[in-house]
Amino acid sequence: MAAPLIAIIAGVAMLALGLVAGYFYQVWLSGSRMRALAQRIEEELKAAEAQQRALIETTTRNARQAWEAGERELADRRREMQRHEQRAQQRDERLEARAGALEERERASLAREAELDAERRKLEAEAQAQEEARQEHLAALERAASLTRDEARTELVRSIEQEVTADAEQMVRQVEADAKERAEARARWLVGLALQRVAASHTTEVTTSVVDLKNDDMKGRIIGREGRNIRALEAATGVDVIIDDTPETVVLSAFDPVRREVARVALRRLTEDGRIHPARIEEAVAKAQSEVTEIIAQEGERAAFDAKITGLPPEILRYMGRLRFRHSYGQNVLSHSLEVALLAATMTSEVGGDVELARTAGFVHDIGKGIDHEVDGPHALIGGELLRRHGVRDDVAHAAEAHHFEVELRSFEAFAVAAADAISGSRPGARRETVTRYLQRLEKLEEIASSFDGVKSCYAIQAGRELRVMVQPSSVDELGIHRLTREIADRVQESLEYPGQIKITAIRETRAVEYAK
User: Fold this and answer.
1) What is the C-alpha separation between 254 and 273, in angstroms, rounded?
2) How many whole angstroms separate alpha carbon 322 and alpha carbon 296?
3) CA distance 446 to 434
4) Is 465 helix (H, G, I), strand (E, B) or coil?
């Protein structure tokens, strides 16, 4: 009995102990959960605080960046406004300077008119004095017993004629010197301003192209069996193929530079490939023609872009591209056209003309040289007709066709193009001429000067840019020497074509020699 009771009591005690232990375990477990929950809540609060701080920092940084960007934009706008103000101020200053120059020119013109009026009054007074002197002279001659009235009148007329001629020559010389000085100063300034803004390279004129070969064995392939390859190449390209003893070199000769370029490209492709026969030659020439045609179009567009010209028809640009392979007296015609466009535009802008008209006309003024071997006539007139046929403005076509004075010039822009063409072609190093033409020009200069009465001898010096004329003192007086130089200059302008200008210097020298014994 005792054993079961003890077992029951022990079981009850164990149960109670288990209940107590479970209760305390449940309390501990609830506390752990509460602590974990509290810790998680605390961590979430910390994370929320960190996120809030990051958000505040990001918002602050974005606001600061936006404020700095606004400050920079405001500063940029202020600088832009300052630049606009500076440009406006510079324009105002230029306008004021131009207005001052115009006022100064007007004052100079008024002063010149006053001087001319004074000269006129002086001449009238001199004429009146001469008339009075003539009357007195006539009266004195009439009183002279040795002269009749007719003889006195003849002598009076002769003396007055000599006096008036001397005065007139002196006055003409003075006016010419003043006008020449002002015109040369203005021209030097204008041409110098135009030239300093333009730089151009100079090349040498050729009518042949040289193709380098890998070895001399390639010459035999080019010639082919019984010369069939070289005949096929000449027939397909229209050029002469010259094969001589020069090592590893073939010369292509043709007047048409485009054909010569096609032949050069085709022959270079054939020699690189090594397969040379008539069929292959025709294929290579066809590809070379396509390649050169593309190069011509690209060169025309590039030149128009460099000249800042837009709106020209594609056909005109292709004709201009052909000038890339054309030379005139050693000067590349396309480079010359670009230079003339820039010079004409600069000179026109300085005098207030139509800059775009002068630029475009200067650019296309030599376009006729691209087809002058295909059409009869001067290249300027050919170019004018070509421009009108493709819809270019008539004033542009006129300025282009008139640059060699083959038609009458009707606008200042046409004069500017003609002047720019002369400047580009005549400045040192731009062009060269053959020895034969050079000698013929020198001989013609001396022949013209020798044809005048009173010329003792003459010499063309400074490569034909100066003509020295020695006159006979007994035949030409001090006043007549100026008239003689002017007449020689007029004859040279009418009879010769030459680049630049020719200075004519007449020398009158009288020597007296005596010996003291």
Assistant:
1) 24
2) 6
3) 19
4) coil
Query: What is the DSSP secondary-structure string of 141-195?
Result: HHH-TT--HHHHHHHHHHHHHHHHHHHHHHHHHHHHHHHHHHHHHHHHHHHHHHH
Burial of 124 per CB tally in 10 Å (0-12, 13-18, 19+): exposed
CATH class of 208-306: alpha beta
In this predicted structure, what is the pLDDT of residue 148? 61
Mutual orientation of helices 2-143 and 149-196 as an angle, nearest 10°? 170
**Using CB atoms within 10 A of its CB, is residue 130 exposed (0-12), middle (13-18) or buried (19+)?**
middle
- Give residue limits of the domains in the chain: 34-126, 208-306, 435-508
pLDDT at 101 over 80: yes
| Rounded Cα–Cα distance for residues 69 and 237 (Å) | 66
Q: Which CATH superfamily is domain 435-508 in?
A: ANL, C-terminal domain (3.30.300.30)
User: pLDDT, tens digit, for every residue of 299-344?
Assistant: 888 888 888 888 888 888 888 888 887 777 667 888 888 888 888 8
Q: d(Cα 234, Cα 228) in Å, to the nearest integer?
A: 10
Longest dimension (CA), the chain: 211
* Burial profile 332-358: b = 16 or more Cβ within 10 angstroms, e = fewer: bbbbbbbbbbbbbbbbbbeeebbbbbb
Contact criterion met (CB below 8 Å) for 380 and 329: no
- CB atoms under 10 Å from CB of 285, counted, come to 23
pLDDT in tens, 220-254: 888 888 888 888 888 888 888 888 777 778 888 87
**3-state percent helix, strand, coil for the chain, nearest multiple of 5:** 70, 5, 20
pTM for this prediction: 0.45
Residues 6+ apart with CB under 8 A from 466: 460, 502, 503, 504, 505
Task: Say which residue the tokens 């006008």 belong to.
Answer: 179
pLDDT at 430 over 80: no
